[in-house]
């Protein structure tokens, strides 16, 4: 994940969030779950900073959308799983980013409803 690519994903997320009228935090991580870029839109919730980063990290560590991982955690009764890896997020808003078949990183969005965060993340990854 290059900084230029991360900035393109952030621009896409901002565009979609503005269409929806939502202020969000946007985190982009590389395939090792290391932060590459972050934006907090004006007036976005302060608590969303940490959540966006954790959603991105979760989708980088487990190449699934965070909502899918959350459903798996609940269906398999993996109590405490979300506490591993310095806290995982199991609700919508984290989406892996691929270049072809290779995962290059992930995006995490926080600030709207779970469905809004997912829509913004998907739009940003295109």
Description:
- The protein is α+β, with helices and mostly antiparallel strands and 126 residues long.
- The chain is 43% helix and 21% strand.
- The model has no long low-confidence stretch (mean pLDDT 93).
- The protein has a four-stranded antiparallel β-sheet.
- α1 (3-20) packs across α4 (114-125).
- The chain has a single domain, classed as Beta-Lactamase.
- β1 (25-30) and β2 (35-40) form a beta hairpin.
- It has helices spanning 3-20, 48-61, 66-75, 114-125; strands spanning 25-30, 35-40, 94-99, 102-110.
The backbone outline, from C-alpha atoms, is: globular
Give the count of helical stretches: 4
SSE topology string = HEEHHEEH
Mean pLDDT: 93
Integer count of domains? 1
CATH topology: Beta-Lactamase
Q: Strand arrangement, largest sheet?
A: 2-1-4-3
Category from helices, strands and their pairing: alpha+beta
CATH architecture: 2-Layer Sandwich
């Amino acid at each position: 994940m290059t900084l230029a690519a991360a900035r393109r994903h952030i621009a896409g997320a901002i565009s979609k969030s503005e269409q929806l009228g939502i202020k969000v935090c946007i985190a982009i991580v590389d395939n090792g779950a290391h932060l590459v870029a972050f934006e907090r839109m004006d007036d976005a919730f302060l608590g969303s900073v940490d959540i966006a980063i954790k959603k991105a990290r979760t989708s980088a560590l487990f190449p699934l959308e965070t909502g899918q991982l959350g459903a798996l955690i609940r269906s398999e009764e993996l109590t405490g799983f979300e506490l591993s890896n310095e806290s995982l997020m199991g609700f919508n808003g984290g989406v892996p980013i691929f270049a072809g078949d290779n995962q290059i990183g992930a995006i995490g969005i926080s600030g709207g409803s779970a469905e809004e965060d997912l829509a913004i993340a998907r739009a940003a990854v295109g």
